[in-house]
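Lab notebook, design round three. We kept the backbone fixed and only want residue identities now. Task for the bench partner: fill in a sequence for the structure below.
Input structure tokens:
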């Protein structure tokens, strides 16, 4: 499979999470590896848990879950080191497992590494796909003894492919949990709390939910009933709609590629994520010039799942209460009045929320919190994680 075809398939995974196992396997195969997976690092009382999102097709999912349950403590420690070695900059850094310890012998003394070797996995490489919120979307490759450590040309190739994986995961995260319910695509799209549309590069709207139609009209993005007014769109959005080659430029900070359209209040507005898409099993073939758009209006009232949000951000109870009011579209002054706090206190809590969530403004904060709440922890078994302390 050519890189162009693989990248197109990666973005198709945003709407079709069922494609991820085969797509990750294709990445592993082209890198000369055995398999690959994507997972989260979730926070729970008393510690952290590794939560598997998806693994490549070569793996039995239950076997991977059993491994994670048995060696969670060691994996958390290893993942902290992987993260520490790759937090700088915006690019994706694929770190080899041998960089985790002073020497190979020390690495192989670890119980989790011994267990992996017993299953035929002798080498790994890992990367952060979300450096702004590093608990989310982590990638790992696994290699057998005969494959050896990942070769440098393959490592560089994977680093070039992973920004597209990062962006597809960021845009499509909310679709994963909904897909588990076996619902039809349009049912899922219509149930989401943000606008979703597939559009042609010329602005023709191929499909959209009611929320997208409302937002597009409210922010004057449309020219006619089913046509975006492309010439008047923000420059960044016109660029993203011009070609699939304009995507994946922000490495492990995919939200930086999003477009912000200011609204009525300070820091409030429309948050637009755009990604190329080529086809969907339930719909017509979109062709090479179609794009998926996700739109969230922070002026509008939303809801969050606090139990999910606090598993990704180490926020206090008072900060969580503030966040709940932020997603309801309230200004800092309104929040201060509602909570009986000074404006200075709320301003400080807002700064803390933005810093801890790795977001840049309140609109991006709302998008991330709402998206996480919709997605949950991606898989029902994650809810049982605290039992494995």
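Proposed sequence:
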């Amino acid at each position: 499979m050519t890189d162009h075809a693989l990248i197109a398939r990666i973005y198709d995974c945003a709407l079709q999470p069922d494609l991820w196992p085969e797509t990750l396997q294709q990445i592993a195969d082209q890198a000369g590896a055995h398999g690959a997976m994507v997972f989260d690092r979730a926070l729970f009382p008393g510690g952290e848990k590794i939560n598997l999102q998806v693994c490549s097709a070569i793996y039995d999912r239950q076997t991977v879950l059993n491994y994670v349950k048995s060696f969670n403590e060691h994996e958390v420690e290893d993942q902290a080191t992987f993260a520490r070695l790759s937090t700088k900059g915006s690019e994706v850094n694929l770190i080899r497992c041998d960089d985790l310890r002073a020497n190979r012998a020390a690495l192989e003394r670890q119980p989790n590494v011994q267990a992996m070797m017993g299953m035929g996995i002798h080498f790994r490489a890992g990367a952060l796909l979300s450096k702004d919120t590093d608990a989310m979307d982590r990638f790992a490759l696994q290699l057998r003894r005969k494959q050896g450590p990942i070769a440098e040309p393959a490592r560089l190739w994977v680093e070039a492919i992973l920004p597209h994986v990062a962006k597809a995961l960021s845009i499509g995260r909310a679709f994963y949990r909904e897909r588990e319910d076996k619902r039809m695509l349009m049912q899922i799209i219509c149930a989401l709390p943000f606008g979703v549309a597939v559009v042609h590069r010329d602005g023709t709207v191929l499909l959209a939910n009611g929320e997208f139609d409302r937002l597009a009209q409210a922010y004057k993005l449309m020219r006619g009933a089913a046509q975006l007014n492309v010439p008047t769109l923000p420059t960044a959005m016109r660029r993203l709609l011009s070609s699939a080659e304009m995507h994946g430029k922000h490495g492990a900070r995919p939200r930086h590629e999003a477009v912000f359209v200011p609204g009525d209040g300070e820091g409030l507005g429309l948050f637009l994520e755009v990604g190329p898409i080529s086809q969907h099993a339930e719909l017509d073939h979109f062709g090479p010039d179609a794009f998926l758009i996700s739109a969230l209006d922070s002026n509008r009232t939303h809801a969050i799942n606090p139990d999910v949000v606090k598993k990704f951000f180490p926020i206090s109870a008072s900060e969580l209460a503030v966040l709940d009011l932020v997603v309801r579209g309230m200004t800092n002054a309104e929040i201060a009045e509602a909570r009986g706090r000074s404006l200075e206190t709320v301003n400080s809590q807002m700064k803390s929320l933005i810093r801890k969530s790795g977001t840049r403004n309140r609109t991006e904060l709302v998008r991330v919190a709402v998206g996480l709440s919709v997605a949950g922890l991606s898989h029902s078994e994650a809810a049982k994680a605290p039992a494995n302390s």
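Keep this in mind before ordering anything: The beta strands are 35-44, 47-55, 95-96, 123-128, 138-143, 195-200, 205-208, 259-262, 269-277, 290-297.
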